[in-house]
Amino acid sequence: EPEVTQTPSHQVTQMGQEVILRCVPISNHLYFYWYRQILGQKVEFLVSFYNNEISEKSEIFDDQFSVERPDGSNFTLKIRSTKLEDSAMYFCATGVAGLAGRYQETQYFGPGTRLLVL
Amino acid sequence: DAKTTQPPSMDCAEGRAANLPCNHSTISGNEYVYWYRQIHSQGPQYIIHGLKNNETNEMASLIITEDRKSSTLILPHATLRDTAVYYCIVIRTGNQFYFGTGTSLTVIP
User: Would the CB atoms of B99 and A44 count as touching at under 8 Å?
Assistant: First the structure.
């Protein structure tokens, strides 16, 4: 069964450093999402991406964050200058396009990247 | 998107059916009911979704009341591996998922 994969599984970085988290979506999926989960808290939406542009973003997704799909396969989340409070699990999710107005795009989540900012 | 209410925790004996309720009294006509689960700190796992009709797949059944104000996820024969946090999410097409606190299901041997 096809799966969403994410690399690295763990990342430790110093405050102020840049990190790039990578996601390989399921092959025919066209909708991409990033979520995060701070330890012990809810899963929170960060951003959705479709047709090479951001569709929606939350208040968390400020100027320190960016997303791109540089080579048509990987989907990346970049945090420009990490802060202590960015420590969390980051989940990528991808979805296949449904028939507009009739089907929801079910999202399939990757295993996550655990980011620790020191 | 409509808000959902779930009990914070439930227990179920191994081999028995686990029935997880969800209230979504403010659901509107074009909103779907989705169920996901999260085992420990793994990525949320899709279980099932529906709009009006009851649905069944290899993992679970979803029963949606006729007025669509509540639903029940049924795991027909719970195993220890079904111990997880279960999230009921109501969403319109194209919107991001809002995860609440879910129901922590513990399957007891």
Answer: yes
Count of Cβ atoms closer than 10 Å to residue A22 Cβ: 16
> A74 is written with which tokens?
């990987």
Q: Which residues of B touch A33 (CB under 8 A)?
A: 96
Chain B CB contacts of A44 below 8 Å: 99
Distance CA B60, CA B73 (A): 7
Question: What is the DSSP code (8-state) at residue B108?
Answer: E
The answer to whether the Cβ–Cβ distance between A56 and B97 falls below 8 Å is no
Cβ distance A109 to B93 less than 8 Å, yes or no, reads: no
| Three state DSSP letters for A23-91 | EECCCCCCEEEEEEECCCCCEEEEEEEECCEEEEECCCCCCCEEEECCCCCCEEEEECCCCHHHCEEEE
Residue of A nearest to B37 (CA): A109
C-alpha distances in Å from residue B10, one per residue of B6, B60, B103, B108: 10, 17, 7, 10
The tens digit of pLDDT for each residue in A7-33 reads 999 999 999 999 999 999 998 888 899
> Nearest residue of B to residue A32 by CA position?
B96
Tens of pLDDT, residues A41-56:
999 999 999 888 998 8
